[in-house]
Amino acid sequence: MIADKISPPTLTAGVMMETVKSTCNSAKRSPMTPKAIIHQRFGDKANYEVEEVQDLTQKGCPGLAVRQKGPCLYRCTLLLPEIVVVSDTFKKKKDAEQSAAEIAIEKLGIHQKEYNPTILEAWDDLTERLAFLFSIEFLSSPHPLSGHFRAALRRESHFNGCVPVSVIALYDTRIGNICKHINSGAESSSLLVMSLVLEAAAKQTDMVLSVEEQLSLKRRNPYPPAIIQPSIDHESSLCNGSTIEVVRIPSSRDKDVQMLKLNIAVTGYYLDVIAQELGVCEASNVLISRTIGKASSELRIYSPAPPKRHLWYHSSERDAKHHIHLEGSLNERASYFIGQFVYGDAILASIGYTWKSTDLFHEAVSLRTYYRILVNKMPNGAYKISRDALLAAKLPLAFTTRSNWRGSLPRDVLCSICRFHHVSEPVFSVQLISLDSSQDLPGSHKKMKVMETDREEESEAGVAASCGDLVGSTEAFTCEVKICTKNQELILQCSPRKAYRKQIDAIQSAALKVLSWLDIFLEKPDTPFEKLNAIAEKLDIHLSLRYFSNEFASSDSDHKCGITIAQARKLINYSCSSDVGKDEPYFVVVGGQNSGVTPSNGSLASVCYSVSLVTDGDSLKEHLESCEEFEFEFGNEAVLPDLEAAVAQMAVGQSSNFQTELVPCEFILAAAGDSAVTLSLLSSARSCKLEYNVTLLRVTEPLEERMEQALFSPPLSKQRVEFAVQHIKNVSASSLVDFGCGSGSLLDSLLLYPTSLEKIVGVDISQRSLARAARSLHTKLNSLLDAKDTSSVIKSAVLYDGSITAYDSRLHGFDIATCLEVIEHMEEKDACLFGDVVLSSFCPKILIVSTPNYEYNVILQGSTPQSQEEDPDEEKQAQSCKFRNHDHKFEWTRSQFNQWASDLAAKHNYSVAFSGVGGSADTEPGFASQIAIFKRYDDDYDHDLEAQMEFGHQYADVWEWNIEDLLSKKE
Ligand code: SAH
Ligand code: MG
Q1: Which residues form the dsRNA binding domain (predicted)?
Q2: CA distance 480 to 495
Q3: How far is the CA of 746 from the centre of ligand 2 (A)?
């Protein structure tokens, strides 16, 4: 019946192409194109915007580097009611669109539900698809497989035109999808897909020929020479062959993983080169894994394929195992790497044909890559990598607040670890509890106590009970997390009793507990089960022994995965370490002047460090890792213990140099730039140590935020936003500039209110904060736009890098300017300078300035909230903190602030009024945050000033979002 639909290949090429195409399009049961699926679901609500891209290789993402020759590529943005996705770049517009649609389908989880054939229909589709792949048209289509087909035509005599079945099974997603409907096991077994393809090829006798004893297929009738020649010439003119670096993972554990160079000739087929290296005959004897790591990567494991005869007789992974087992020994390292069986020696390489280009893509794979992927499978390693600090960072002990967390968030790390280890995604369930009820909730209980103290303090200080913003809500959340097998059997469950004020904090905290436990298990799988269980209990984790050991720990050889994570882990960590937890007190030599500013528990310490591997007596030294600025929450074991112990002894501005025992080798090798030297040092007879050079750059006291969040409801920051919104309404402001915008908290929150604002601008001198602000504004604005949310009419948003004591004419005459909790971060004279510059040059209609009220500190510091477990240092810390935050250069009393503001207003022809948030004006000691509102006397305002002030642009552009640009692209 297939033969009826597809014209015999004796027709001329042109006709042939037409026919095959139309057959594919009209076959209703064929899997639909991504665009068709999107259309079916969203109709004309789906908007494709295609833009031309000039040079994407400049974008600095090495994994995406594409060799390109044409001047112009296309990228497509697909706007859907629910999400917006952006494709990679393509030579053809339509490929960019298909790719965007494909990403959207992936993200929305609409996996071609529409395609639901019977088994017979699926077989038909499979043979039909094969026929299409071997059609003349396909040879020139932009599909990763077509590169293989063209390369196959360059193979020498006997193998000429032979395309490995493994390649067809792997690179064509439609084949994979169809096979799932023939045998559900195909989803997880590429061998099964291969055998189904071979079987389909045997049925499809017109177009495709199954090659005797080879695992490859061939077109029955040769391609017309006129078609073959140009495509080959075209490719050979592009590159002259190259050497690529790959990694060999021997199946024998006695042999080291090592670097290898492969010579890929233009005239050959790269899989033949890999085959040779693996000691098998030719390309079709090579088994290829799915991609490892990022979806965009081409990193795969190549290993010897089982002989053809073994493919025919199995229908599940389990059977496959028994057959292939005979052929080579299990490669445990490689198996752990990809979570599937690998037999025999394996090669890790990043090479292949992609959607992006018809050229062969490849990039070097170093030992470092190998080790980074390896450690990425452990929670601690994944976290270290997200911080790019393998030899400094450590998975923190507890989740305190979002604002203190650095690196990937626990929930995200947990999700990816679950994915790596092939169990289901974790399921979180949040529970709302009331703190008023007298349940036995340790976390909340403590908070209750704190609150009571607050109340006492309040009355002592004479604060009226009416100021209800103190002490806040009585709601809190707990969160439970479950991890199940793919078959939904419960592996473990973590149910912390501690309550959090924010749902998300409760979630992150539960995720972190699971991560901490998994980490202990994965780093030391030898730990006796009783001990693991005891640790689990402490972390509020309950293990389901049976399923846990199935997935992770058992040595039961009959199990579906044969080798468990624990077994594999044991093999890899050829640990040269290390009993890190030392008991003796630890002292380092500290150099530099003592500034007196030291980190205390809960503060954020920022350090600059470098780490080298040194041999005994320092005779040899190899640099491993360094970081200019690394920030971590102090006292939370967020860095290696020795490092934290060293920093504890330092004051801001001081440096120290110290040596520690080695950490497990895989972390060192994942950090090392030159693996060869590092390896030789590690394996030399000399004993090695790690040498750290650390300078304490800064200490940020998060006390202020913590107080503001814990003591005020809504939090003070929210009250400041509401304050600004009120004034925006009063003057129906359309433009706003936030001086010292920090991470954009005000700009961000303004988007949540319906206001008249059309243009918002932020200025700051901290690039790090600006980057954060840009990221968050970008997502928020785009999602507002996607959601066609009409509460915001914002047309443009801009961020500038600059000091607000300097004038930039682009920000002249705005309707409203804000400067919240910023001036106290500058020297007093600069704060005064800012006042002059803003009112004399920027001339906003309204200026709102807020700063802490020094007199209020008694209240704040007398009732330091405890957000954490018992912490005897907390009291000391509160006392030693004269200002609310270590970065504050001053904090003014009410009269100091009034004086400054009144003088300033008088000088520049503004009126000024005073207000505040937190507390009240009428009761001592006034507001927690005092606010001055300056209003321009408009009659005096010189509208031409703008023109006169051609100072040029003092601020550097950091980021800009413009609705006009976005919409014009749409047209
Ligand atoms: N307004 C924000 C941030 C307050 S933190 C909020 O309310 O959340 C103070 C901010 O002022 C920091 O981001 C700091 O980088 C910034 N800052 C300090 N001195 C500055 C200067 N001279 N010019 C611009 N920004 C400054
Ligand atoms: Mg401040």
Answers
A1: 39-109
A2: 5
A3: 14
What is the length of the chain?
971
User: If you measure from the C-alpha of residue 917 to the centroid of ligand 2, how many angstroms do you get, rounded to a whole number?
Assistant: 14
Distance 408 CA to ligand 1 centre (A): 25
184-218 residue pLDDT tens:
888 878 888 999 999 999 887 788 888 877 889 99
Ligand having the closest approach to the CA of 749: 1
Domains 702-731+813-937 and 732-802+955-971 share a fold: yes
Q: Which two tokens stand for residue 582?
A: 């030392």
Give the fold, CATH level 3, of 702-731+813-937.
Answer: Rossmann fold (3.40.50)
**Ligand 1: which residues within 6 Å by Cβ?**
740-742, 745-746, 763-766, 769, 803-805, 820-822, 825-826
d(CA 215, CA 210): 8
Map out the domains of the chain as residue ranges.
35-108, 119-314+326-365, 396-439+468-570, 588-700, 702-731+813-937, 732-802+955-971
The model's confidence at residue 105, banded by pLDDT at 50, 70 and 90, is: confident
pLDDT tens figures, 873-903: 433 333 334 677 666 789 999 999 999 999 9
C-beta neighbour count of 263 within 10 angstroms = 11
On whether the CB atoms of residues 736 and 759 are closer than 8 A, the answer is yes
Query: In the CATH scheme, what is the code of domain 396-439+468-570?
Result: 3.30.160.20
Q: For 329-352, what is each residue's pLDDT tens digit?
A: 888 888 888 877 888 999 999 999
Q: What's the CATH class of domain 588-700?
A: alpha beta
The ligand 1 atom nearest the CA atom of 763: 24
What are the tens digits of pLDDT across the range 36-56?
A: 888 888 877 888 988 887 653
CATH architecture of the domain formed by 35-108: 2-Layer Sandwich (3.30)
Both tokens of residue 736? 């706003």
Residue 292 confidence (pLDDT): 87
